[in-house]
Predict the 3D structure of the following.
Amino acid sequence: MNDKKALLGKLSIQDNQRKAGNRMPRLLITGIGAIVLAGGAWFWLLPGQELIEVNTVAARPASGSANTGSDAVLDASGYVTARRQATVSSKYTGKVTEILIEEGVVVEQGQLLARLDDVTQTAELALAKARLQATESRLNEVEIQLQEAELAHRRTIELADRELASQADLDGAFLAVQGLNARLKALGAEIEVGRRSMKIQQQQLADTEIRAPFGGVVIAKAAQPGEMISPVSAGGGFTRTGICTIVDMTSLEIEVDVNESYINRVTPEQPVTATLNSYPDWQIPAKVITIIPTADRNKATVRVRIAFLETDSRILPDMGVKVSFLDDTISGDGPAKVLTGVMIPENAVTSVDDESVVFVIDDGIVHRRTVHVGADMQGNISNITYGLQAGEKVVSNLSSELTELLLDGRRRVSTDMSSAQ
């Protein structure tokens, strides 16, 4: 019994060991708490770090003319059209054996698009070649007969000089030579006809290969292998009239119908801003090509053709588009200047030390940034050509007091998103 008590006594923790063991966790917890409190005090008590509520706006891409907004003298709507578009077909009726294109494929001028059944054309070409060879063989035969007739004619002349041949014999020999010469000439003409016939057959054989008349993009595939195709409508609905439709995307333009009461506001070379219905925020610079010199009496409109000043793969044929005809008298004699960079409200730009400055917000912190302001705009809009990217948020509705606060070091802000005008 005494032994058991002695053993239990050895397992007990002494008072000095208990105090040393409890001291280390308490010191660790106390140190972490002090660090957290010091960090919070530094963040909140440091001068200039109070939370400021500001209005912000996102920079949007600049596109179009500097004469936008109130400079528009007329608005109209129309469609994107292709000046160069073709439905490619064959020259004659035939069966399609192979199609080498699909919708959306870019083709070059002269590129092979499809093949037609060429069995008949190949046979006719072989027949034309055989006829030509037969005519050339007859020509060789006549040439030999002509040589024989000329020898006989010379011998008859010698005999007639010695009075051993009659005049009838001499005339017969002469006429034989003339007859063979005429036959030789006729065969030469037949050979020329045969050669030209063979060229026609070669062209018909080449026509079984349908090629692109110009470079462009295939927008429609109208036939499949095994179908009949014809340049004219034939056979009811069982005969196709085309292989595919090709559009030259570099020839895209806009056609709009303008009310004849306002056509006096439109002039050739007039600057235009076009907006596709599919991309309402994208303004495309354009200009008037021509005014079609006739009016539609049913709609009382005049058609106007408009050219794009920049090309883009997003512009597609038959897209709906809205256009604004701009007042070209404001921008001088030349065309309207095309804008680059981004657009922000005028009240988001301030001047500091003779430099244009904006305040960009990144993760709730304001950063000062120097920018370059481009063309003067109307409607309280500034065009920033350098120093700012589309989509970046800047502080708007800047006042002198707010500017002073934002210039005093990095600031944390509470944002209230507003839209650019």
In short: The CA atoms of residues 76 and 323 lie 5 Å apart.
